[in-house]
Amino acid sequence: MDIQTKMQINVTSNKAFEAFVNPEEISGFWFSHSSDRWKEGKTITLKYAEYNAELDIEITHIEENRLIEFTWGNHPVEIHLEENDEGIVVTTIEKDFDESEVEQVLGQKEGWVYMLSCLKAYLEHNVKIRAALL
């Protein structure tokens, strides 16, 4: 099973791309800290200060302003940035869940919807709605 989530965001693909890969931007909508700029082949440590949690992701592929691929845990993730007349559609796909992970799939889907909502608020209105800021 895969989890796919999409949202229209009315900014350029470059602005959205930078929000993910730039450590100074990602804290505006998702993680409180990113150890480095996201680049293909790098291991990045992401932190949620409010939960005293951190995880490492492996950046497996990047196409600037179009695609970011990484793995976290046992699951590959793709973030697609597709331009349209108003801006872009951001699509996240988290892959390779098996049937025993149904509850995790539901939780992950909720997390992706929340992250994209925070990204939209941040990029379109400079509103920071991360968990730590609620």
Can you tell me about this structure?
By secondary structure, the chain is an alpha+beta fold. Helices cover 28% and strands 36% of the residues. The chain is built from three helices and seven strands. It has helices spanning 13-21, 23-26, 102-125, and strands at residues 3-9, 33-34, 43-48, 53-63, 67-72, 75-83, 88-94. A seven-stranded antiparallel beta sheet has the order 1-7-6-5-4-3-2. The chain starts with a strand and ends in a 9-residue tail after the last helix.
Question: Short summary of the structure?
Answer:
This protein is an alpha+beta fold and 134 residues long. The chain is built from three helices and seven strands.
Any descriptors?
single chain; 134 residues; 7 strands; globular
Helix and strand topology:
Blueprint: E1 3-9, H1 13-21, H2 23-26, E2 33-34, E3 43-48, E4 53-63, E5 67-72, E6 75-83, E7 88-94, H3 102-125
Antiparallel strand pairs: 1-7, 2-3, 3-4, 4-5, 5-6, 6-7
Radius of gyration: 14 Å
Number of strand segments: 7
Biggest beta sheet summary: 7 strands, antiparallel
In the sheet with the most strands, the strands line up as 1-7-6-5-4-3-2
Low-confidence stretches: none
Shape: globular
Percent helix range: 25-40%
What string gives the helices and strands in order? EHHEEEEEEH
Strand content: 35-45%
Mean pLDDT: 93
Number of DSSP helical runs: 3
Structural class determined from secondary elements: alpha+beta
Distance between the termini: 31 Å
